[in-house]
Amino acid sequence: MQKEHRNWAADPVLSVEHLTMRFGGLVAVDDLSFDVGRGDITALIGPNGAGKTTVFNCVTGFYKPTEGRITLRRDGTVSTEELAELTRGGNQYRKTDKGSIFLLERMADFRITEIAGVARTFQNIRLFGGMTVLENLLVAQHNELMRASNYTIGGLLGLPGYRRAAEAAKEKAVEWLRRVDLLDRADDPAADLPYGAQRRLEIARALCTNPVLLCLDEPAAGLNPRESAELNTLLKSIRDDHGVSVLLIEHDMGVVMEISDHIIVLDYGKKISDGTASAVRNDPKVIAAYLGVDDEEVEEVERDLHVKPGAATAEGGPQ
Amino acid sequence: MAEPTSAAANRPEGAERLSEDRRDAMRGEPPFVEAPSEDTRLVRSLKEAAITAGLVAVLTIFFFAFRTDIAVGGLQLSLDPMLWITWVAVAFAARFALSYFVFAGERPTVAGWKKVAASTRGWPVGKVFGVVLLLVALTLPILLSVFLPSQNRYLLDLAILILTYVMLGWGLNIVVGLAGLLDLGYVAFYAVGAYSFALLATNFDLGFWVCLPMAGLFAAMWGIVLGFPVLRLRGDYLAIVTLAFGEIIRIVLLNWYEFTGGPNGILGIPKPTLFGLEFSRGEGSFSDFFGLEYSTIQRFVFLYYIILALALLTNFVTMRMRKLPVGRAWEALREDEIACRSLGINTVNVKLTAFATGAMFGGFAGSFFATRQGFISPESFTFIESAIILAIVVLGGLGSQLGVVIASVVMIGGIELLRNLTGLQAIFGAGFDPTQYRMLIFGLAMVLIMVWKPRGLVSTRSPSAVYKEKKVIGADLVAQGEGH
Description:
The complex is a heterodimer of chains A (about 325) and B (about 475).
Chain A: H1 2-5, H2 7-10, E1 12-23, E2 26-37, E3 41-45, H3 52-59, E4 67-75, H4 80-88, E5 93-95, E6 100-103, H5 109-116, E7 118-120, H6 133-139, H7 142-148, H8 153-157, H9 160-179, H10 195-207, E8 213-217, H11 225-242, E9 245-249, H12 253-259, E10 262-267, E11 270-275, H13 277-281, H14 284-291, H15 298-307
Helix pairs in contact in A: 6-10, 9-10
Chain B: H1 4-10, H2 12-25, H3 41-65, E1 66-71, E2 74-79, H4 81-103, H5 111-119, H6 125-147, H7 152-178, H8 187-204, H9 208-227, H10 235-255, H11 257-260, H12 286-290, H13 297-322, H14 325-335, H15 337-342, H16 347-373, H17 383-396, H18 401-419, H19 425-428, H20 438-452
Antiparallel strand pairs in B: 1-2
Subcellular location (chain B): Cell membrane
Membrane topology (chain B): Multi-pass membrane protein
Protein name (chain B): High-affinity branched-chain amino acid ABC transporter permease LivM
């Protein structure tokens, strides 16, 4: 049953290979490799301090990783040879008629969103609090509107091309507000919204940048059960209706187990498990990491962790 | 959807924010209420007045009671207790009146104001006020010549000065108010604009209208030059570097003697012309062409309309840009820089455009300043100018165009007004010179504004895009950006 679900190996949108991030002497992420399947909801879980947000910051360009390669395949398939060639050369990305690949570790954070199509949200919500909900979504369409306004000149002169683009941007914003059920609050300042609504607005804002991969940092944190259920529906519809792949960090196992197609478990910066929800749930290493182990099992688990970090566990299931 | 209030209280973040709000409302004081005093209103007021008078007595004894004069063999100390006693008595009386009638008064004095504020809530007060101000500004030369012909020239000159500061305030508002980047060296761009025009005009014989765009361009270029090193700086560091930049420009102007004339400045800067017509006596002048009698006031009216047009251009472009993606990105940058980057916005470009646009308008204003004065020297571009412009923006309310106008009129016009308060000499004696107290009054006004309106006169923000209904955003929600 697992085999047919392993979309991430067959058609990955994002491949993280040998990612290492050191802060001084601290190794936050240690030789981590995983794939995110196109059109999947992938969850990155692990105990506090496992390095999940660091991985996120590396993928979205907020940190430059110490080592490793992060590849985004925006559309179509690009051969391994081409990827190897791009890696050897100095370029950040390559676009061919068959598809385009981006080496995210070489790109600046805003370029990753702008041209590679990775959008993110933050663990502590970062909205433009003093701007209205509608304005928040318009800011997210900055680059499109900038081009339409001929880099401000056309906009200043009020050319029709810009006016059309501005109308279209507003329509897109309104459409997303309708989707996340915030349309009646479109003219309120974002900081005035209740917490759950702010979370939804942040997701809508990220989606306004037209991403292929949406990275959500604890989207269900601070939500009540009903809001979590609504979030699940929203994320599924983002995946199914818009074809956006989702990578999320989450502590709420209800959310993770219900919606994830693929789960990666980190502990102390290493991957300890990788597979479908059912495989990960029954993995003794995951149980050990979350619940701790009996004294007599400590050695065995430690040996597993160090000798073959994260390997073979992809097959999943109890060993 | 969740109810806003209950949802906010049930969650840690919401609850934390509520308790923070409550703490802010108490200004860090513990929530206790003073036990009501047993004294009657009169006794309490007398007590408070006595405490105030005592404080004033202690603080002012060395300034008022003693006087040193140069005498043979050194200094001579003389005692002048009358002045000291007068001021202590003034403090006592003032505090007593304040305590008895206002603080301990039967009726709260602010209630009347609150009623007025509540009844005008729905009106577009700001809009109406702005339109009235604009009409007055457009017809000011006519109004002055009709109603105050005797002081026409003086008041017109003052209006030109005020409008120069309005324009500078609007220019700085882009950088500080919209983009939220604290700039303490704005006068540098004013200086660049002034010197660009002066040097181009005196060396290459170019006129005002040719030099104006070039001066703006040079200033914008220097805005970008300043922008680059401060891209990574925040808060206090940003303020210090911009402050230093303003001083560097002034000191270079002062010391590069061969190029700028150093402390001697530049003389003989030409006056602007109206399509080649000069405002002077004789052949080919404005009055000659239109068959009018020559009067110096014509040139003042012309200058007035130039600066009015420049200021209105600044306002128009700024208001327009606010509704464009670049302006929205400025405000987003002020709200949250990291979120901006996560949305694919190149914050380097956003900061540089803010610096360049603000500097360009500073450059325009500078070249107008040069043509109005006919003479410039580094003396005119000291740090105090930057401070005044920034004070105008902060007092007016960051990001508010109308606030800048009000603050300029009050700060520049108000200080000038002090010169005319010669009537006060009847009270304080012939030696009293009100202009000597202008910095004191200036400081006092700032303190009062910061106590009553800490976010400036006009502190609300109006959204740049509207779906159904335009709602004004309160100051408490709007971020102030870096360095505040």
